[in-house]
Amino acid sequence: MKIISHSSYNFRNIENLRLNADPEMNIIFGENGQGKTNIIESIWLMTGFYSFRSRKNVNLIKENSEEAVISTDFFSNGREQNAKMRIAQRKELELNGIKEASPRAMIGSFYAVVFSPSTLAAVKEGPSERRKLLDIALSFIKPNYALLMSRYLRVVEQRNIMLKKYADKGYEKDYLSAWDEELVNSGAKIIRYRLDYIEKFESLASEIYSGISSGKEKFSFRYDFSSVNISEDEIKDRLAAELEKTRDSDMKRLYTGAGPHTHDLILSLDGRDARTFASQGQQRSCALALKLAEASLIEKATGESPVTLLDDVMSELDEGRQKFILNYLDGRQVFITCCDPSTLLRKGKGKIFEIKNGEIVSEK
User: Fold this and answer.
1) pTM for the whole structure
2) How many domains does the chain have?
């Protein structure tokens, strides 16, 4: 997949910007606060997922404007396509001139992987960030996964409502049994998808991290529900047992405490918890390995090489790690932001865009 051109109107600090992309390297540079990340963010929104910075549409619209519009011409699934998104109180999408019910229609048409400072949360913060990383990647590879996950979360929400409804009245098992059954059935499918993906994901991310660190450090991870060769029926039995075990505590906390919405991906560096013991540079390298592995698995599964969006990726990385990443990305379409483009120039390849006050002031 390749982006041909991308336009943003009244998007954050961008009034009117059009970027004609290079099929490989696109370096976007400028001082802090000029709009570099806004360009990366507007491209990412074309995937149909939420922004990696804000879930509120109002934060995406330029001050004193009623709406923002982003538009992308891209080549995917064997043909040139166009997507246009209007952002006001809600997002409205047109794909190839046809109005779609939801921006989610872009899943399966537009592939991208993004690394931004917020991506470090997958290493540094709690389990929800790592689940989000898994769920977005799986939605690209298995478009029905996003629908399955949405349905599952609605079941959890309804079960929580039932817990609150009967908290002060006592409860009968039948009050929750229907929700438990649906949670077990859909939850088992989610866990099966995750386990199948992680089996490939862990091996590739570990290999990439070894390259980033020149073999000096070993990166590994595991899913905290994992079990070798566990079947979907066995997963159902285990989930059902966990729901039964946590039922009393669920009634006290008014929250469903078992299921894939509670699971974690445990990251380790040289056998120690990466969240606690890794340095800033090592944590950044872990997050990069996860994202580069994600991109490779999406390409293997779909036949489409996702656009790689890297926002402020090279800070806190030494020269050797920077060199590995640039070599690994060779041949892919990349959009990378920085303050100084001199370290990223590769034998005249690609384009360099200088950004000031939300405008492209030079292009080379």
Assistant:
1) 0.92
2) 1
